[in-house]
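Protocol step 6 of 9: fold each sequence in the batch and record its C-alpha cells directly after the sequence line. For illustration, a two-sequence batch is reproduced in full.

Sequence one:
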Amino acid sequence: MTALIHQILALICQYGGITAKQAWDHLIESGLFPNIDKSLFVEILKRMGDPETRLLEQAPDGTLLLGAEGERITSTFDFYAVFETPEEYRVLFRGKEIGRLPMALPYQEGHLLIFGGRYWKVLEVDAARHEILVDQGKGGRPPKFGGDGGPQSDVVVAEMRRIYEDVAIPRYLDQQAIDLLHQARQSFTAYELQSRSVMSYGDGFILLPWLGSSGQLALQLALISNRLNATSQSITVEIPRCSKDDLQKGLKKIAEGSTISPESLAMLLPEKTIDKFDRFLDAELQAKNFAAARLDTSRLKEVAAILLTDLEKL
C-alpha cells in the first residue's frame, strides 16, 4: 500500500491534481496494482484525506489535491525513494540501551528473545517511544545462530530438510562446509527429526513446522492468539513454560477451528508498519498490508494437525 500512496501523491504532483477515476485508471485499471480492488482503493483514498493524515484534499469539483502533509512530504528530497529501512526499537535493560531490533516481529510482554547471545524477557513494548524494556531471562543457554538472515521461503526450508535427510555430499562444498553438514545431519538423526516435528525442551516445547518465514510467523501468531508464549528462532518455534495439555488445546483449535484470517493475526502485532508511508494508514489498513506482505496462512491448519499428531506421540 505504501507504493500506491506514493504513486497517488506523485500523480498529483505531476498533473497538479487528479480525480479519483483518473487515479484508478492510471494505477489500478492499468494493472500496476492488481491486488487492489475498488473498495480497498476507496478506503485508502479516504484515509489519505482524513483530517489526521492530511495527505489529500478534495476540491468542490472532485479533484484530488495535496493536503498540508502531502505538500510537506512531496517537497522533501527523499520523496521519490519509495522504500526505507524498517523502524527499529531500542532495547533497554535497566535504563541502558543494549542494542536495537526491527519491530516487524511479534514481541510482546512476557516473551523471551535472544539478543547478544543471551535470553531476555520482554517487560514492556512502548510503541510511542520505540522502546523494548527487558530483563535478564532464565530460559537456559540460547542456541547459537550466525548472522541475521532474511526471510526464507517454503522452497528454501523444504530444500534444507531434504539436504538433512540425504546422504549425498554436494560437490560445491569445501571441507569446512562438509564438516558442518555432517554435524547437522548427526543432530538431525539423533533427535529423530525425520519422523517428528515436536520436541520437549525444559519446561516447554520446540516445534519444527518446516515452513518459510511467512508461514512460521502465521503459526507463531496463531499460537499467541491461543495464549501460548510462542517465539520464533530460525526454523523453530519455541514455547517455554507450557504444558502438553495447553499446547494440545492450542494446536487443536488451530487445526480444527474456523479459518484464521491473516489480518486478524497481524492485528496482534504492536508494530505493523513495514513500508515508508504505512504510518499514514490506520491500524486496520496496516494489518491488511502486513498480512499481504508477511503472513501466509495457507498451510496453517495442515501444519497444526501434523504438530498435534506428533505431540500426542510424546
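Sequence two, same batch, same settings:
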Amino acid sequence: MKVLVVNCGSSSIKYQLYDISAQRAVAKGIVGNIGEEDSYLEHQVDEQVFRQAIPIQNHRSGFDIIINTLLNKERGVISEISDVCAVGHRIAHGGSDFTESTLLTEDVVKKIEKIIPLAPLHNPANLLGVSEAKRLLPDVPHVAVFDTTFHQTMPPRAYLYALPYEYYEKYRIRRYGFHGTSCRYVSRQAAKLLGKPIENLKMIICHLGNGVTLAAIDGGKSIDTSMGFTPLEGLMMGTRAGDIDPGVIFHLYRESGLSIDQIDSLLNCESGLLGISGISNDMRKIVDEANNGNESCQLALDMFTYRIKKYIGAYAAALGGLDALVFTAGIGENSPLVREKICNGLEFLGISLDNQVNKNIEEAERIISGKDSTVQIIVIPTDEEQMIVLDTLSVAGLTDQDLPD
C-alpha cells in the first residue's frame, strides 16, 4: 500500500511515493521548468538518481510523466497504478476556513478557490495538481494538507493586526503563518526525542531555510509565528526582507519611481541575504565568503542571526518559559555556525550550546545543548512529506494499524 504525495507549483511538480509497510519513501522526484525549453525529470530510487531533459509542455504531461516513471520497469517502484491507495496534496493556504487536513471534495475545492486572493501564486497551481492527479487516480481519496492549518490555534491577540477591525472582517487580513506542516512534524519528533509528552512542553521551532519561520509551540499548539498575512513578514530570509517599517514602501513609491509591483518584487525577490550580501541567497556561500573577509556577507550573517535571536527572546516571553529550542530545514539542520551565533548570548534564558556536539553531523536527530543548559537545544531534520502521508491516511479513514508509528 502506497501513498503519493504531490506538491504542485506553477512551473514544477514535486512528488514522493511512500510505502506504508516499509515506512519510508521508495521514490521521489520533480518535473521542473514546465513549459520551458530546459524542462526536465529528476527521479530518485534509494540512492540512485535519474535525470533526463524531456519536453514537458504543461502540468498534464508532467503528471503523465510522473506516473509512467513510477510504473517504468527499469526505474519504477510500482507494477500497476492501483498500488497507490491515496494521494496527499500540499496546499499552501487554507485561510481561516480550514483548521485541519481534509478530503478534497468538490465543495472543498470551491472553498480553496475562494481563498486564491490570499495566495494567488500558490493555490491555483496546487489546485491544478489536484485536478490532474484526480484525472489519473480517480478512484482513490485525495487529501488536502494545508501549510497554514497548524497555526490556526493562535489566539486573536497574536493573529490580528492593529488595523480597523472591519478590514479583518471584510478582507480577512490577519496573520496566518506558514511552514505549519514542518513545524507540526518537528515539534512531534522533538517530544519523542526528549521522551516527554508534547502536551507538557514549551518549545520554539526555528525553520531556517530560504524561507524562515519561527513558531512558539505550547503543548503541541502554535500560539504565535513569525510569518504573517503573507510569507514576507517576519525574519530576514534568502530573498525576502522580512519585517520593515511599512512607511518604507510609501517612501520608495514616492521617491524612487518604482511601481507597486516593482516594490513587491524588491521586497520578495531582491532583499534578505541576497540584498545585503550582494552575491547570494545561499547561506553556505555567504558563510564561506564571510570567512574569507567579505564584509557584506558578514553583515548579512550577523543580521540574519541577530533577528532570530530577538524573536526567540520574544517568544520565550510569550510562552512564559521554554523547554526546547529546535532547529530544522536547510540552514537550521546544516549550519553549526548559524546555530552557534543564534544561541550565544541567550544563556540568561537557560540556553547553553555544547559547541563540540553542535559541530557533530553524524546523527540526524540530536540534542546539542550543554550539560548546564536548562533548555534542550535540538536539531531535527524536517519531513513534511511524512506528515502529509500521516494526515492523508488518517483523513482517508485507514485504521490505526495501517499507520506508521
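Proceed to step 7 once all outputs are recorded. Observation for sequence two: Residues 365 and 380 are 5 Å apart (CA to CA).
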